[in-house]
Design goal:
Ptyr_pPase, Rossmann fold, Protein ArsC, 44% helix, 5 helices, 2 strands, mainly alpha, EC 3.1.3.48, 129 residues
């Protein structure tokens, strides 16, 4: 969801890539709630960090605790920023009502959206430190 939102909201300022420690596939609930924002993420893929393009990254933003704790080493110039969002699949796992399950995805999507809208200022502040 973060990659799709970044492409939609700030692609003129950043080139977003998304990768995890483990590729888990494109989540159909994430696709649904992003479509509610008219953002199509169906062409995105679930990648691992090793599948990212070979290039230097200025910033790596981890969005869950597991990724933050197990984040691979990047070159010294790469700033790693942790933005702790809850994991929608884990939140929705115990919901028997599909609509309630989607509500978890919507809430986290909205939190990520708010974060991404502030991201340019965050990155500027990070580079001036």
């Amino acid at each position: 969801m973060a990659e799709g939102l970044a492409h939609s909201l700030i692609s003129d300022l950043v080139t977003p890539y998304s990768a995890g420690i483990v590729a888990q596939g494109l989540n159909p609930n994430a696709v649904k709630v992003m479509a509610e924002r008219n953002i199509d993420i169906t062409s995105q893929t679930s990648n691992t960090v090793n599948q990212l393009p070979t290039q230097d990254f200025d910033f790596v933003i981890t969005v869950c605790s597991n990724a933050h704790e197990t984040c691979p080493t990047f070159p010294a110039k790469t700033a790693i920023i942790h933005a702790p969002f809850e994991d929608p699949p884990a939140l929705a796992a115990n919901e028997s009502d599909p609509e309630k399950a989607l509500d978890h995805y919507r809430r986290v999507r909205d939190q990520i959206e708010a974060y991404i809208l502030k991201l340019p200022a965050t990155l500027i502040a990070q580079t001036s430190n």
